[in-house]
Specification:
5 strands, alpha+beta, 92 residues, 35% strand, YaeB-like fold, 5-stranded mixed sheet
Length: 92
């Protein structure tokens, strides 16, 4: 079973981004909770990738060319937890 969680800071970030980007994020959340993260990673539209450097151990998905969601995976018993850490405009 998969569960996606995030804190108040991500709620605030979602309130500040364009609606179309927030909708795509919520679609990703629904897909992960229904199918699991490994199945969703196979979808090319999200460009799920592992991160390096300061964000080693985290992954990101592309919500569009500019916006990313950063997350980490945790396992607690039978539940595999996806913790969304941040949703923001990607810095190039």
């Amino acid at each position: 079973m998969w569960k996606v969680t995030w804190g108040k800071n991500v709620d605030k970030q979602l309130d500040r981004i364009p609606d179309v980007i927030a909708r795509k994020f919520r679609i990703w959340v629904e897909l992960v909770e229904e199918s699991g993260i490994r199945e969703v990673r196979k979808r090319k539209g999200f460009h799920d990738e592992p991160l390096k450097g300061e964000r080693s151990g985290q992954r990101s998905i592309r919500l569009n060319n500019a916006y990313r969601a950063f997350y980490a995976e945790h396992r607690t018993g039978d539940i595999e937890l996806i913790e969304v850490l941040e949703v923001n405009k990607h810095e190039y």
